[in-house]
């Protein structure tokens, strides 16, 4: 197998694995653990929040480690950190140690994917990097489809959540070994900015534009503030839904198995929506797609709040996943179009940092469930938040003025709004 194919295989496998074993499946395992260990729902939500918080805080680490020890060892270290988190989770009886475990999972996720892989694919596939990175994200997202079903099979057949964590620890070590064997740097990482440049589209001068935006000026623009706010609301609701959907559907009377199916359907819909939205944004205004995605998520949350029927809840999960994929991808496309490819990587990183506030969602939802006995009131609140975000997008989301004054024209006469990262 050619080396670039080996790199693609190992990077995609790592992203598939971390997606399958963390955010999308943790909610299922937590449902079983909370019942056996008599934890409060707020405490369970905090463990989920720590996973997301660790991902956000550790996000500067991959470029630094890639410069120090190379991408191969960075991804290998990420898999080992994941394995350590899973191993601790398999042995815990105290909530504090589970907090340590989920924190390690978050750090391991960040080191294994996606930042190192994006750099690898951009340098190993210079002419088709956009296409390969698209395939990479689709494969990684599909881990969210498989994860809940894998957990459901292991826990359902054995009744032992500890065995699940132990199996995942062994698998994490094996994935790390595959990364160690297959991954090599096509271009040695000399500086941290080198990694950020590839993520922002600077690997190819054709992606640069003449908008005149700097990161500092863009951060102060009302347009970015609106986009960051919307993305934070979306990420908060998505994170909370991953942590509560299984438990919520279980309260409808048919146990946790339908919740695992609903979680997989949500991930499947989100993956498909992201793939389709990318093509649709080339022909239609991404702002309208963003608004439609937010409205669809709000409707799905309202449906989850109001329905007592498992089948309808599963349909709501599909609608939510579709809206999530539409809103999340179109928001990133808008950042690229409004501020240009030259700083898109930095602006995306800043928006992602802002979404770290989303970790408060699972804690709040857990507290509401402890007080009321149900996650339904939290879902009503999230529906209202998404409706508010929809209204903000309709009323206040506009192309920044400097972008309009620059006539959105690049040096070669093409509209900046049409620029996409070159393959």
UniProtKB/TrEMBL annotation:
Keywords: Membrane, Transmembrane, Transmembrane helix. The keyword Transmembrane helix applies. This is MFS transporter. It comes from the Bacteria. Residues 7-401 form the Major facilitator superfamily (MFS) profile domain. The chain crosses the membrane at residues 7-30, 42-61, 73-92, 98-121, 133-157, 163-183, 224-250, 256-276, 288-304, 310-336, 348-369, 375-397. Coiled coil: none annotated. InterPro entries: MFS (IPR011701), MFS_dom (IPR020846), MFS_trans_sf (IPR036259), Proton-linked_MCT (IPR050327). Gene3D superfamilies: MFS general substrate transporter like domains (1.20.1250.20).
